[in-house]
């Protein structure tokens, strides 16, 4: 079995939601929810938080987690992860967003599994079928289209593919070919280090989606389709949605 390391990038500074990783969710900081869910993966050997902030570092250490301090000038989560793992003994790196408290061990394992069976993959990720018009046309929901072998052809903030013959928005959904990208990435370690050394690409700059840099440079991204969606926390309103879901889950589990 390959040595699989999960890394959670976490910044304190955020334009829309400062201090987001430490936001309280039912008595625990969000970063702890993400960390513990990552620990529930059956395939991950070790979990780290990569952060530029001593407050996040201390919180993680206090609940018994592993944390690595990274320079504040690092711009992206992927660059932060690459910095953290350069000297770690690992074959496969899992990038788990620090604002995904609903991510599950099962989802993480689904994203990892292609690397256990296929050799021609640089990166893998997850997607879920879009079933509502709001998500399809929301630019904050990233869409992905796939080839016949479920490799990514393109990611976009626009609804893709364009359904020329659809008369209504609802008819777009009936085609069954629209997928929401879920932002977990799995890399071979050498693919991750190669990726962060590439120059930012034109498509990446246009869409503000760094995975397009990988596609423009010929890297292969396998997309695993799953049935369960998740919610990333970008705003305090998103946090309230997550808290409602977790409260409901707790009631169902106790009921």
Automatic annotation (TrEMBL):
Subcellular location: Cytoplasm; Membrane
GO annotation (BP), single: CMP-keto-3-deoxy-D-manno-octulosonic acid biosynthetic process
Translocase is among the record's keywords: no
Biological or metabolic pathway of the protein: Nucleotide-sugar biosynthesis; CMP-3-deoxy-D-manno-octulosonate biosynthesis; CMP-3-deoxy-D-manno-octulosonate from 3-deoxy-D-manno-octulosonate and CTP: step 1/1
EC number: 2.7.7.38
Pfam families: CTP_transf_3
Protein family membership: Belongs to the KdsB family.
Entries under NCBIfam families matching the protein: kdsB, PRK05450.1-3, PRK05450.1-5, PRK13368.1
Name of the protein described by the UniProt record: 3-deoxy-manno-octulosonate cytidylyltransferase
Designated gene of the protein: kdsB
